Write the structure tokens for this entry.
Amino acid sequence: MLSLNEYLAEAEIAHGHLCAGQVLGVRLAMLGLAKLGIEDPRGKDRKRLVTFVEIDRCATDAISVVTGCRLGKRALKFRDWGKMAATFVDLETGKAIRIAAKESSKKLAREMHPEIESKNQQQMLAYREMKDDDLFSTQWVKVELPPEEFPGYKGDRIVCAQCGEGINFRREVERAGRVLCRACAGERYYKVL
Ligand SMILES: [Zn+2]
Ligand SMILES: [Zn+2]
């Protein structure tokens, strides 16, 4: 693992700016890896880790930088719960830890650095200095990961009976005896014009 400052330098480049969310994300990911005993997530341990993120904000980019888990590698899973939390799953041992930022950390940041007016600057500094226990809550969890969720899953592509588009990773659903994609099954997030 690199140091906090080294990861922050990388996160700044990847994310486009340095912010409190980057500090939070880097520290959250470093803690997760340390708890799991994963030392080289982007090198020799790169096939060992799957990360679930629960928010699409600044910290998510930083978590991706530290863990090397990316959406396009299927090692980063997004659960849109709007929560500053992530779960790190060690595929080798089956161990998993969920880490969430504590609500109280913002207040503590104000108390630690009342002299800094900018909230972002204040949190950026305080989040560097704060103890893990003040910043995060952790829980050991069990994550059921079916084969099609594994990054290296190889399965057949199914063709939707309605739209004819291909469906990977067993995302098809059955409706009245027909095999459909989720859009045709009624889960569309868009309207065709
Ligand atoms: Zn940011
Ligand atoms: Zn379809």
The CA atoms of residues 147 and 153 lie 7 Å apart. The two ends are 49 Å apart (CA to CA).
